[in-house]
Amino acid sequence: MNLRRTKLNLSLASLYSNYQGARQNTGTVVCALATSSLMLANPAWAQQAAETTTPAASTAPVAKSGALTDQIQSINITATKRKEDASKVPLSVSVIGGDELNAQHITDFVDATRSIPNISFSGGGGGGNAGNGPGLSNVEMRGISSAAGSATVGIYLDDVSMTSGNLYSMGSAEPKFFDLDHIEVLRGPQGTLYGASSMGGTIKFISNQPNTKINSTDIYTEVSSTKGGGTNYLGNVVFNKVLKTDELALRVGIQTAHNSGFINQVDPNTTATIANGINTEDDAVVRMALKWNVTKALTITPSIFYQRVKTGDIDVAYTKTLSGVPLPDNTTSKTVREPGKDVLTVPSLTLNYDTGFGDLTSVTSYFKRNFDRTQDGTTVNSSYLGSQINSNYPNLASVVGGLPSTIFLNNQVTQFSQEVRLLSKPYDPNVSPYTWLVGAYASNQHTTLFDNEPVIGINAAFKTAGVSITDPNVIANPVSGGFPNDNSYYTGRFYHDTQQAVFGEGNYYFSPELHATLGARYLKASQTFTRDALGYFANDTTNDGVAHSTSSSSGNKLTPKLSLTWEVDKSNTLYASATEGFRVGGSNFPLPLGYCGLTAANPVSYGPDSLWSYEVGNKSRFLNNTLSVNADLFYINWKNLQQAINIPACGYAYNTNVGNATSSGAEIEIKFKPTKSIVLDLAAGYTDATLSDSAGANAGVVGAVKGARVPGVPKYNMALTAQYNFFVNDDVYGFARAAGHWTGSSYGALDPANPDYQRPSYSTYDASIGLSRDIWEVTLYVKNLTNNQNVIQRPQVQGTANEVYRINPRTIGMSLSAKF
């Protein structure tokens, strides 16, 4: 929602003074800023502020009374690495503006996937059993879903890649939707411009940039209550300070948020309540950027993004205790809580230089993610160890089987990357029939995982029983080191990935209305993987629980792209494209043969997989630009899939290449403004993604038979939004909005015996109403209006059929915002 702005010359120094007074107490920062805002709302104070403000920089312009547009506004995007009108870009793109994110109260990936065609999410991390929650989801597009191997969807913050391989202990990086100009969702392979792991598509979070002309301060706060939970709050403030008009500006944003938990923990034996609302979330985000127009030709923009997300537990409940006692909705009887702390740090330096014949851009970036989390390993570790104790010691077996086990997972991803590209000037029929882009990219990524799994009290249990924990007559396949500090397993996994690529795209205009695009990317990639493991669960019956392995893999690939675009007229564009997508291979570690019941060693590496995507579409405006229709059809042929072979005997898995798949479908997005006051939006997608053969089943992937649906891919999704805008009087502007989201059924696994095999369809409904006057806007909203608490996924954190993931319960809230 665009807020109307008052014409005030705001004294930023006064706001800064309030901030400095509160900065030692983070919780009072937003309050101090709001106090400054209220002072500005007083006309007398505002007049005084106007007299003391430096006149060099202007403030935000006034919004004219009655400024309701009767046409659909265009938006520029950077999907092709140049700023273009989204309605002219020849590929399937969904765009959600920053104001629209606030208006719809879209706060995370899960919300976004319900509003965008043919994009979905699955919990569990990268093929593991991590459960659902912040930082634990994998994102899929157009049926290109895989929890094994490399990622299939690229994640970008501006021009910085935050994509990493699938890892069982964490999901994709999830930057908070803070101070964003817009989000771009690029469907289909984007390998030419965005590299490997964008074979399903790419998500770009485009930040607001410093403005060298206008001083501004944006404040947003909200408070809400969740049914069965507690009070939630969010507050942020963004300053844009012009340090030298048209030359130098600084933008600083701070956000803090708290989400109350709604899952209660009970005693697994008595079901008495231990704690309420354990799945809390506390966020802190800071973003700073400086824009320096050194000359008319050269701009330098350093920036840094920092985010910390602390969770009290995952968003997974139980339907009953392990002994079979039914539990109320949103209740868990887990023994060990599963908190997490996920920290993102993304500094970057961007240089733009106008060479006269083209625009040169250099992006130097560093990405670091530290994700430390705890997982309950009781039913995985303790129960198994209890079953390995000799039947002559039933009491000991019972005690060990019920001991709490904690899995400590410490994940770290660091990446340095450098991209340089040269972009021609926009098409001018009087200059040249060609436009082009050439570039080079290199990255150096290190991923580290430490996994420690103590079974708390196991040494004391054996001591009390008067037996040795290393006696093979008491416990099967013991190791001489026993369980040091009660630890049943330790592993350190070290991945080193490098990539180098050159890429380019060229456009030839047969006429101003018709042009062809030819693009290609040549990539070289390598990975070195080292694993060290100690303890009972590292024992292969020959190594006494001490394992070490190192493996490496490398490869190269040329991925082409071809498209044809016909601008029928200024309001209608047709396009067709054929694009190859690709993701790199990787390495495995040798599984313990005896423990896993294997008769031969597993492969120590797996290769790349690739696909060809074919797409036709249109982007049209009708009825004097009051109706827009973007629609497309696609067909994808996916070869040599990276799949995980799970070994039930030990719980380990390795990746391999086996089988093929196809995905076909359609997307449509319609926006209609029948009057100045009414806006209707429809976004819908359909996907049919299935395996083309039974090669996976023949290789040991249970359920990977011809015709099986690719996991994690809803058959359809749709969102319908209606908004009515009106004026209460000449000064007060109002709006009412309602939205419905429908997600089709899907399969969470290939194995029919998996509790997550069939996922049901579901729907959610949201509504809001608000008023805006001058710089202020207030909104009342409700999310999940009908309080839908149906089970939509069944994650296997503990390997039982009792674990469920539901939509967050109904949340009712109020937001207040201001723009100076």
Structure report:
This protein has 11 helices and 44 strands. By secondary structure, it is mainly beta. It has a 22-stranded antiparallel barrel. Strand 34 and strand 35 form a beta hairpin.
Lay out the secondary structure.
Blueprint (H helix, E strand, L loop, with lengths): L11 H11 L6 H13 L1 H10 L5 E2 L16 E2 L6 E2 L7 E5 H7 L4 H5 L5 E4 L15 E4 L11 E5 L2 E2 L18 E8 L3 H4 L6 E7 L6 E13 L4 E14 L3 E12 L4 E3 L6 E3 L5 E13 L4 E14 L5 E4 L5 E7 L7 E15 L3 E19 L1 H10 L6 H8 L4 E19 L9 E21 L3 H8 L21 E25 L2 E21 L11 E24 L2 E12 L2 E2 L5 H4 L8 E2 L2 E14 L4 E13 L2 E5 L6 E5 L3 E15 L2 E14 L3 H5 L16 E12 L4 E12 L2 E2 L10 E2 L2 E12 L2 E8 L7 E3 L9 E4 L4 E9 L1
Helix pairs in contact: 1-2, 7-8, 8-9
> Could you tell me the radius of gyration in angstroms?
28 Å
Strand content: over 45%
- How does the major sheet shape up? 22 strands, antiparallel, barrel
* Count of runs of 4 or more consecutive helical residues: 11
Shape: globular
